[in-house]
């Protein structure tokens, strides 16, 4: 099942927010795990999206471009979480809920983003960006492909526990 062993990891560095976003291919779409600390509860709620471009070396989240929006839907009207198929593909918080803080551990499956480069919702070499309540981009991380054997080990451990 090689095709299911692709995995992307975003690691936040040099900002108050620390932690990871892990994206693991699922039978349909991607299973995400957000595991971060350091969100200021006074600036909540936080939104998080897949943005088009990776984070540049200077770390400027503004340079990650707009949301992954494979169908050019735009962000007006806002995403209705009861109809996630109508939202921007990259609008993860619109589909699965904003987060507060200071610590966040959140898991969800998103059937609209994809691991396969030929699919419209492909997330490779894109970024995940957190916005505070004002909309400011407070943290961003490039989604980088992780070595497959690491993922396979995880999968094996998972199978054993099932
Ligand atoms: Cu965003």
Automatic annotation (TrEMBL):
InterPro entries: Cu-only_SOD, SOD-like_Cu/Zn_dom_sf. Its EC number is 1.15.1.1. It is an enzyme of class 1 (oxidoreductase). GO terms for molecular function: metal ion binding; superoxide dismutase activity. It catalyses: 2 superoxide + 2 H(+) = H2O2 + O2. Residues 1-23 form the signal peptide. Its main location: other. GO terms for cellular component: extracellular region. Keywords: Antioxidant, Secreted, Signal. Coiled coil: none annotated. It is found in: Cell envelope; Secreted. Belongs to the Cu-Zn superoxide dismutase family. PANTHER family: AGAP001623-PA, SUPEROXIDE DISMUTASE COPPER_ZINC BINDING DOMAIN-CONTAINING PROTEIN. This is superoxide dismutase. It comes from Chaetomium thermophilum (strain DSM 1495 / CBS 144.50 / IMI 039719) (Thermochaetoides thermophila).
């Amino acid at each position: 099942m090689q095709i299911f062993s692709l995995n992307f990891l975003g690691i936040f560095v040099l900002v108050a927010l620390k932690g990871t976003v892990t994206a693991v291919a699922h039978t349909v779409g991607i299973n995400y795990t957000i595991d971060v600390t350091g969100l200021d509860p006074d600036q909540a709620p936080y939104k998080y999206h897949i943005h088009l471009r990776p984070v540049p070396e200077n770390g400027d989240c503004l340079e990650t471009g707009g949301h992954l929006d494979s169908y050019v839907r735009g962000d007006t009207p806002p995403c209705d979480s009861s109809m996630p198929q109508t939202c921007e593909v990259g609008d993860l918080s619109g589909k699965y809920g904003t987060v507060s803080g200071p610590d966040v551990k959140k898991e969800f499956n998103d059937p609209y983003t994809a691991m396969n480069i030929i699919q419209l919702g492909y997330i490779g070499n894109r970024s995940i960006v957190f916005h505070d309540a004002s909309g400011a981009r407070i943290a961003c991380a490039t989604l980088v492909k992780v070595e497959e054997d690491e993922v396979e080990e995880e999968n094996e451990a998972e199978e054993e526990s099932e």
